[in-house]
Every structure is written in C-alpha cells, then in structure tokens.
Amino acid sequence: MARSKMKTSSHAGTTSGSRVTLNPKVARRSFLKLSAATAALTGVAMTAKMTTKAQAADKKEPYPGSQTVRTICTYCAVGCGIEAEVHNGVWVRQEIAADHPVSYGGHCCKGAGAIDMVTSPKRLKNPMKKVNGKWTNLTWDQAINEIGDKMLAMREKDGPDSLMFLGSAKVSNEMAYQHRKFAAFWGSNNVDHQARI
Amino acid sequence: MTNSLNDIRHAKSMIFIGSNAPEAHPISMQHILYAKEKNNAPIIVVDPRRTKLAAKGTDYVRIRPGTDAAFMLGLINAIVTNGWEDKEFIRTRVSGYEEMVAVAKDYTPEEVENITGIPASETLRIAELLANNRPTSLTWCMGGTQHHIGSSITRTFCILQLVLGNMGKSGGGTNIFRGHDNVQGATDMGILADTLPAYYGLAEGSWKHWCKVWDVDYEWIAGRFKSKEDMSKPGFTLARWYEGVLGEEKIYQDTPIKALVQWGCGSNSNSQYTRVKRAYDKLDLLVIVDPFPTMAAVACETDNVYLLPSASQYETSGSVSSTSRQIQWRNKVVDPVHNCKDDYQIMELLVKKLGFAEPFYKNIKQLPEDITRELGKGSLTIGYNGQTPERIKLHMENWHTFDVDTLQAIGGPCDGEYYGLPWPCWTEEHPGTPILYDVSKSVAKGGLPFRNRFGDEMKYEASGRVENQLAAKGVCNPGSEVEGGYSEFKDVVPGTNWKTDLSQKTIKDAIARGMAPFGNARARCVVWNFPDQVPIHREPLHTPRPDLIAKYPTFKDKPDHFRVDTRFESEQKPDLVKEFPYVITTGRMVEHMGAGAETRSNQYLAELQPEMYAEINPRLANDLGIRDGSMMTVESPEGAKITVKAFHTERVDEKTIFLPYHFAGILQGKSYADKYPEGTAPYVVGEVGNAVTNYGYDIITQIQATKDGLCKIAKA
After folding, report:
1. Nearest to B139, CA basis, from B126, B113, B157, B151
2. What are A135-179's pLDDT values in tens digits?
3. A77 in contact with B at a CB cutoff of 8 Å?
C-alpha cells in the first residue's frame, strides 16, 4: 500500500528504519540503469524520433535492438540533454548526454531519475471526478462533455471572465502558446502562469 | 538571461544575489566552477542564507532579506565615488545616468550597513573586487524578485552592470537563471494576464497583429470578450486569482471567478495558501490537467473537481526555451502511458467541445510543427521567427558539433550557428544571438545594440534635463549603415513597423543594412513610467526594522492592480515585529522541483528528501528550547500556523527562519493524504510552507513577496 510507505512530517523523531520508500542498497549508478517496469507500459507503439543507436558497451544487453532518443530534461531551465533508451516502445534506461553542449554529461539527482516521470505508479491514470466525496473514473468523452457543458453554461450566465486559466511553464512553447491563444479565443485576459511568481 | 550558462566560463568574476545554483540549477555549476578554476574568478554570494553556492564561493555577504536594492545602490555609489565606473560605456550607451547617480549617492557604505546589515568595509571591498575583475557575470533568481519592490531590485542589478560596463560582453551580462524547464518559453509565449504572445501587450494594435497571424477577424475575437475595453484590461494573475473567487476584497470585474482550469501548474507555490485553499472550496468548477494529482486536487474538498491525466513531457514533443534562450526540440520518448493524453490532444478535445476549433486550428494541420510556425510568424519582437522546427531538430541531432566555450557549431550541418538558435533569431539564415546587446559582432552574425523602445528623446522630471535616448556617434555593430544610434525601423512596408510587418521585409532590410530592426539606443537608468523612476530601497511591508519605515516607506496602496486592490502603506505595520520577531524566507532544495507534485511522487527523490523542515539557527533554537529534530510551529501575521521539524543550522542567522516550499499534502497540521485518488498520493507529504508566507506583492508585476515576511515560532 502506498499509504503505508508515506513519510509525513508528523512522524518526527522516527528512526531511519521507517524510511521504506526503496531499497537503500540500490546505488546511484545502478539506479541510472534500473529498467522500467515494463508491465506498466503495455503495448505502446514506437513513434518517437530515433536519432542514434545505443553504443555504450554496457548497453548491449539486455535490450537488443533498443534505440536511443535524444531529449531534454523536464525539471529546470538549464536544459540538460538526456539519452533515453527505448525498447519495444518502453523507456527502459537513460544515460547522460556526454556531448550535449550545455549539460556536458552532467545530471542532477532529479534529471537522473527522469525515467520515473513516465514509470511512477503515482501517475494519474484516468480522467476522474468526485462524486459524493469519492473519486470516480470517467471516459475522456464524459469528462470533456461535462466540463465543456459547465464552462459553456457559466460563460452564458456570468460571462467569459468567470473563468481563470492557469497555464504552464512545464509544457512546450507550442502548448504554452496555445494556452494564451485559448484564453484569447475564450474571451478573457484571466490567464497566467508560474512566471508571475 | 543576456548571455548563456556556457558564457559564464568567460567571466572574470561572478556575483549571485538571491540565487542558489547548486540547489536550483545544479548543472550550471560546471560552468560557474570552470570560471572559478580557470580564470581565478571570485564567486561572490549575496544571500540571507549561507547557501550551498556560498560554500562553493569565495566571498559570502550575508544580507537582510529585502534590502538588495540598498546594497546594489551602495555598490554603485562606491564605484562612482572611486572613479571605477566605465566612463566610455556610460557616455555612449547609457541614459539617465546623472539622475541615477544623484539617487545612489545617498547610499553611503554606512547607510548601507544600517539598512542591510552588511559592514561598510564589505561594501567597499566588494565594489573594488568587481571593479578589478571585469567582466562580471551577475545572476539573480527569486531571491531578488519576490519582494514588494522586486521590480526595483532587479533594475538595480542591471544598473550596476551598466555602470561597470559589463553589458553586451562575453563573461558579463545579467544572467537570471530561470526556474522551470520552459518558464522562459512560456513567458515568451505570453501566458500572462497583461500581454499577448511575445510581449506585444494588450493594446488594440497588438490584438490586430495577432488576429492577422491567427487569420481570424478582429471583430470576431472582440465579440468573444465582454467588451473591446475589456480586451486591453489585464486579468487576474496567478499570484492573486483567488481574490476573484473569495469576494473578500474589492474586485474590478463584473463577475466573481467561478471556474478554474489549472494546467501543469502546482498549487502550493502560491503564498497565502490558506486563502488559496478556501478559494478552491468556493469554486463551482475546478479542472486540473496534470500527470500527477497536485495539492489542488485534495485541497478542494467539494465535488466540483475534475482531474484530466495529461501525459508527461516525455510522452509528447515540442520546442522548449532554456534559460540561455536556446530553443531545443524535446523529442517524444514513448507514447502516453495509461489512459493519459498529451496536452495537444486535450486542448483539441476541449476547443472542439467549446465550439471554436475551426478558427483556432485554421493554420494548424500538423501538430506541433505547424504551431511552431504560427507562433514564429507572429513573435517578431523577440525573433522567434528564424527557428523553424526543421532547424531546431537539426541542432538536436547535431548537438555534439557545438563548442562548449562558444556554443558555436564547428563544421557539420549547423556550422557557425549558435546552439539552440538563441533568440532573437531574426531570419531563417540567422545564427541566433548568443549575447544580447553585443556591438562587437554584426547583427547578421548575432550582434545587437540596445533596443530603441521608448522614444528618441526624454526630459527627466527630477532634473529637467533633456537627453537623447539613442546611442552615441561611433557606437554600432560592424557594417552598420548608420555609424551611431538610430530609431527602430518602421514604414518600410507602409503602415507597419518591424514588429508588425508579417512579410518580415522590414527585418530583412534592416539586417541587410547592418542594422538592428529595433534600433540602436541607450539603456535607461530612469524609467519614467514606473513609480520609482530611479530604483530606491523601500522597507519590506512586514519589517523587522520599523525604525527605517519613516525614511524608506513603502508605496501608497494600489487600486485595481490586476483587477484587485493591493495594500502597501496600509499593510506596513510598525508594531508587527513585536509579536512576529523573526524573518521568514523560502527557497528550493535540489531534490525537489516547484510545488513538488512530480518529485514527491518520484521514489528516488522521495527517499533523498522525505520530510518538510524549517532551518533555524542553533542559538535561537536553544534559547527557545527547540531541539534539533524536534517539532516547532511557525505562525504568520495572517494567522496561519504550520508544524514542522526543526533543523539546526548556521546557514541562517539568529533572526531568520528558512522553509523549503516544495512540500504539500499537510496544511496547518491536517493531512490530506487520504484524499488523493487511490494509489496516487505522493510518497512524501509535508506541511505547505507557503501557508505562512506573508501578504505582499510587487507594485509592477504583482509577484508575491515570499522572501521577506515575518513570523513567530515556538516549540511544538
């Protein structure tokens, strides 16, 4: 149970024995090489852009035929390179980008665990809403229809300024641009994001 | 950032104010430490905390929170008094200098000591260190901005660099390290209450420009708004949107805010978080679009909340702008997992449902490349037009061909271009601009003068002096047809200027003539449209030094500030310090990011930093009987109270409490861990630090003042 693994600050003074989030024997180097839980990622198609074949000697096994995708870390604005190893549509390992001109092979503890962004069991898995205080799964069609109907009714009754749209510094330029464009087409300047604070 | 992280390798000295790179930008450190080792460059760290950067630095200056402007003005005064200013740079490229010096002269080393707590001898010593080790790279982060005078503080940083002649030079510059991975790009794209993309603002002409780019009728867009007047009125901001919901403060729109879409934006970064929580409960509709449930998902305790699972950024693709203004293509690694959809798909579903898909996607058939092309077409002000998707991807494929010292490609398909085509990249042949305002290179090869944006001449209120705002004769980029200052380009295509000529003929003509499309002007020390035309110190709203309020009072209260009143004068209460005697300041830790929804859900990072805490000086803690590792309370003047673990450390002085702001899931002692959807509660929950950050907002930007509030503490 995830809850039993949770560490809260109300547990002051407890010993390190209660830190059960992962096996402390897993060294950092091994952690870089940890393979993802493939079961969680069934049947996804391989559409990523492949740039180079994996070359490093220690990458030969156990993922024959895997491919390396050059991508960019999603944490801070340094913009470090990441070499993601993908096998049958599953992100299995990551490597530093030794020849990226900015990160130059460097990774911080966050970037080194980038793969967990995809494999974390804590990810939201379905659209949801609360019904009588309980979270309930929805299909995408249900969710968008319900949200859209409520937004349209509110716009009709209270006008477009009854909506606040908080966009993101964690999406691409293309998506950020669409956040602003969305507010313009909706008809309100009640739109902002993290850069404000 | 005017230069780049790599360019810091050329610095002869570095000064960091309110920036803690080893925690917030760890990989920038390799360039910073390279300059330290290779150039013997001092690293001067100005911060209320002895941070990890201070540990790696050569000179640490402990400053009282919120007094950065006073220290900078003190440095400027010391430099000018000793004749260390760059006289030629100032003569040719700076305006309002005399008016600025007249203000700075009051900040004597002794007065600076009184305000900041920095010994007078240190101000002189640091001034001399900077004067003798040029160029200096100057960096600030949120420690410099999150104050009620944040916009003044940042200007003093820029003015210091102008006085030293460090702008437009390799190894120099004002190098603000941006926070989130694409906060530079998202700012450039204008997800802001007061501008359209690329800083065009909200004037009628700006709307008409973007309507042309979108290929929609201006009158149709206007019809979507309540009124045309409303189109030019800035909206609510992230800092204070909840005031639009709560109805406890006067607001300046007809309707309260009833619905909130929060998309890829953690919620506990907001100060005054107990009020934020109440606003969530009052909303009729809350839609959270995120890969992980944020604190908002559980802080909102009504049924009016929807969660839409977006894919992570590794499950989609698009361009991102680094702090160095480099645009990189973030390739998709895998398809969206679970029943997640990527942001583009979610937006498309929503826009279709809301009935404006046809005009919204008029130019956009291929996602996301057609969006890159559309945003580039319109974003001429900052030169996002030269970075086509094809060029950005080519840089990614060939990142190994770029030199680490110059960021220029040596041979290969990108030969001579700068990595990531740093903006402005004026044309599809332009190599990008690696250093802003650098007149040593031609504009076609990445050089630039200062922008002419505020007219050609100005009469200053303070002195009555009239000054030409264009650069002096002889100062221009190599090959410039005009040998000296010139105005911005307009009417090359009649009725347009370089910003609005969508044919880009104006830009191309300017560059063909060796000139910058935006003109060649002086950098201003006097900003006539700001309340403080020359930046000055003003005491924090909640100050531990009420004796300084008379001499350095805050502003008058500001009505209709992004649709809500902001208190300044009426909030500056001199007696507050009696009950709340300690300064509270916040910051980051390397293991977590932002509001922490992602990193606290990462098993490895959760293991490394599993607990919320408060940094407290051992002397203060022992005086109050708070033992290391025991629990203590931190209470704000607004009445919020959190209970956190005490961490004894001399990083902070005896008057300051530091809180990391990444934790959430517990608010004022109440755990919300059981309110997350099953199986999605983050591994780590902790008290929301921002519950106790104080009231206070910058007078221009409305950034929250989380770095210089007051609190009281006690043993729990």
Report:
1. B157
2. 999 999 999 999 999 999 999 999 999 999 999 999 999 999 999
3. yes
Interface TM-score (ipTM) > 0.95: yes
pLDDT, one tens digit per residue, over B489-534 is 999 999 999 999 999 999 999 999 999 999 999 999 999 999 999 9
- How many domains does chain B divide into? 2
| Residue numbers of the domain that contains B609 | 558-715
Instruction: Note whether B161 and B72 are within 8 A (CB).
Output: no
Is B688 an interface residue toward A (CB < 8 Å)? no
Rounded Cα distance between A5 and A18, Å, is: 8
- Judged by CB atoms closer than 8 Å, whether chains meet at B179 and A77 is answered as yes
Q: Which 544-603 residues of chain B touch chain A by CB within 8 A? A: 590-594, 598-599, 601-603
Question: Is the Cβ pair B332, A176 closer than 8 Å?
Answer: no
Nearest to A117 among B403, B598, B685 (CB): B598
pLDDT on residue A62? 80
CATH number of the domain bearing residue B696? 2.40.40.20
> By three-state DSSP, how is residue B536 classified?
coil
Give yes or no for residue B27 having a pLDDT over 90. Answer: yes
Q: What is the pLDDT of residues B172-228, one digit of tens each?
A: 999 999 999 999 999 999 999 999 999 999 999 999 999 999 999 999 999 999 999
Percentage of the residues of chain B whose pLDDT score is greater than 70: 100
Instruction: Evaluate whether residue B143 is within a structural domain.
Output: yes
Interface of B with A in 140-159 (CB under 8 A): 146
Instruction: Give me the domains of chain A, ranges plus CATH numbers.
Output: 25-119 (2.20.25.90), 128-196 (3.40.50.740)
Average confidence score pLDDT of chain B: 98
Distance CA B171, CA B35 (A): 9
Per-residue pLDDT at A60 exceeds 60: no
Work out whether the CA dihedral B339, A173, B170, B412 comes out positive or negative.
positive
Q: Provide the b/e sequence for B652-686 (b: ≥16 CB within 10 Å).
A: bbeebbbbbbbbbbbbbeebbbebbbeebbbbbbb
Find the CB nearest B611 among A9, A101, A159.
A9
Of A40-54, B77-91, B569-583, give the lowest mean pLDDT range: A40-54
Residue B600 has φ and ψ, to the nearest 5°, of: -75, -10
CA-based nearest distance B581→chain A, Å: 25
Query: Which of A15, A63, A129, A181 is most worth mutating to test chain B (most B CB atoms within 10 A of its CB)?
Result: A181
Choosing among B5, B177, B181, which should be mutated to test the A contact, i.e. which has the most A CBs within 10 A?
B181
Find the CB nearest B309 among A6, A89, A126. A126
**pTM of the prediction?**
0.93
Domain-ending residue, one of B117, B148, B163: B163
Give pLDDT, residue A17: 37
How far away is chain B from the Cα of A142, in angstroms, using its nearest Cα?
A: 11
Question: Is B49 a member of any domain?
Answer: yes
The pLDDT value recorded for residue B18 is 97
C-alpha distances in Å from residue A24, one per residue of A19, A93, B139 = 9, 20, 37
Mean pLDDT of chain A: 79
* Chain B residue with the nearest C-alpha to that of A94: B333
pLDDT > 90: percent of chain B? 100
| Pairing status of strand B523-524 against strand B558-561 | unpaired
Name the residue facing A99 among B400, B611, B702 (closest C-beta): B400
Q: CB B302: neighbour CB atoms within 10 A?
A: 13
> Looking at the partner chain, which of B237, B292, B351 has a beta carbon nearest the beta carbon of A124?
B292
Q: At what angle do helices B369-378 and B204-214 cross, to 10 degrees?
A: 150
The residue among B130, B148, B163 that closes a domain is B163
